[in-house]
Amino acid sequence: IYEQRLGYINKRFLILQTLFNRQLLSLSSKHHTTIAIQTDDEQYIDLSLLERELKTVSTERDLLAHKLDQEYEQSKLRLEQSEQKYKQDFVVSNEKLSMMQLILEENSNKIHSYEIILNEKEKQLKDLTEKWVHEQQKQSENIDSLK
Length: 147
Fold this sequence. Notes:
Residues 65-138 form a coiled coil. Keywords: Coiled coil. The longest helix has 100 residues, at 47-146. This protein has one domain (2-128). A hairpin with a 4-residue loop joins strand 1 and strand 2. The chain is built from 2 helices and 2 strands; from the N terminus they run H-E-E-H. The radius of gyration is 47 Å and the shape is rod-shaped. It has 147 residues and is mainly alpha-helical. The chain has helices spanning 2-26, 47-146; strands at residues 37-38, 43-44. The termini are far apart.
């Protein structure tokens, strides 16, 4: 909105400045005449009225330009803050990811270790089962031989 308004004011300023400069050139320094100037928007009866309007438009243009500069600086600051927050969030996310990868690796190692222990225990259980079966057979044979 400010940019559209500033564009309109700049256009009007150029028209008024051109008219003002033309009138200054056409005036004689010895006498003051009343001049009628017609523009697209308004009619200016004399040079002082045109000069006041030119100053008003110039001031409004400067104010709008200042507002645009302020908005630009605020937007720039918000963008920098957003970028900083994004960078911080990115660093935190990377740290979390690194921690998760370490935990995953640690858990994978634990699982591998448990699998090895489980295999050893299964082997021990199998050996014990075989011994027990063998002992049972011996006892059975001994009982049979005692009969």
